[in-house]
């Protein structure tokens, strides 16, 4: 067979059928190696027929074997007399069933008189619900696909090893990412293409219960305004889906199996199909080639688009959560002039004429000078200044540092029980792992209510508060507790947005002290990553559980923020924005600023959150023996900015330090329980 490097030229040799006497059809079951299946057809000697094992090819030219011989279990019961034809695996995934489960359709349609045998999911040993060979249920979308193809044969489902007097075993007419044989393509082409002028069809994945492209609801709403028909295929019957495809003059959508039914169209040559690649972080030449084989089989004018403005937020298997920093790129890829923005990049046209020229990636960097409030930082000047600055920060009295051994409380009341070893293990199992499993299980082709589009700002991108609510950090206006109850959040994100927006597209470093409680760890970091697509996001925490966030692309530092030595290790990062949302202990809040504030560039932002721990019943918990609170410190600096009154400074603890911070500060802004410093 031809290699994947030439998917447009499949083998032209006719496909063959093998007649096997005394064959045994095995059910399929998950193999020991991840992503493999034990399955196959055995001949009378018990040898597996290699053609009945699933094989796949990949974009890098490598071939992989997914199916492996099942256990050589003797056929149960009597051998079925007469002749039957083997169809393949009765798979449960829509795309894989359409491509691999139906790979022998070319032969099955030629034998309407023969019983069709499927390798079905193996029964468990204690499963007595099905008799040997009894069908697991010929219904749902798989039955609808067979009806569409006119396959109405008697069906036999091998949920246990089944013996046959004589079995016809056709070659597979499709191999994943490799080829679709012309005989298979002809057998699948059963729906007439009758395009209606101007009918443009978008196949959405936004209603699937899985990780999503957070920008897509806004894009799809705009497409509908422009006259596109937007459908969620998993909410429609197979005939309804095919009716939409048959009447479409153009088809587009994000990469997914909702596009595979294009194989059922007959004479669709020239139909323009735009496919948006799923993972923008992968090299553009490494992608799922099934779309090429389908396009070649049907003569589609297919165009693959890699969106350079997309930022990957997290991955779970093949699922990806991402966000675009330029919604206009989607519209430009579709040749829609109404979409806002700048020229598109990295768009490939396949199986048709070359696409129009595209602009190269551009990079904007600000080199501001001076020091006025809200100004973007002068990173060049900052680098030079950093080389001359002390590596110890501003010297503070040792009474603010955590003694060793510690004699003060090292965390908040909310972190005590949950952050013990047992508490973290329980949180991880009951919270994050359960959520991952639930999402992974639901992330097939199951429909769900469409997520509401994220609120956007004047630039058309999600606001910081919208992202905070999406990732469920208490910085949002509304917040969901661990029990799922929706309550008022701190609304910090809406306040920060007006100060952060100037840095949104800058290659800055954002450092956050405190990664959140274990059950929702990393929520704020994900919000920041989505908001600052070009930034390096660094999280600091004292919980070992935070280390798992490194797999999501964050840099994580674990240590005690009450230790001067650890704080000084953080100075090397020299962030443009620093958010202290850690223990909220008074001494920790002041000590962190003492050690890290002067590492910010001119125009940089330092945030001290939750200074409400200075009041009421929280005073006793968060003072930990200190007498100067975070709120007291903020007020002292604010007053010093306006007065620099010697008598005022003498009235507060650490007058030299308060004066030192005030001299470096352009202004201080307070909102509810947070304070924001802009460095002079």
TrEMBL record:
Region annotation Disordered: where it falls in the sequence: 334-415, 444-464
Record-linked SUPFAM superfamilies: S-adenosyl-L-methionine-dependent methyltransferases
GO molecular function: glycosyltransferase activity
Listed name of the protein: Glycosyltransferase 61 catalytic domain-containing protein
Species per Swiss-Prot/TrEMBL record: Amaricoccus macauensis
Domain spans labelled Glycosyltransferase 61 catalytic: 94-268
Highest taxon, organism lineage: Bacteria
Short name of one Pfam family: Glyco_transf_61
Biased composition (Low complexity): 401-415, 444-453
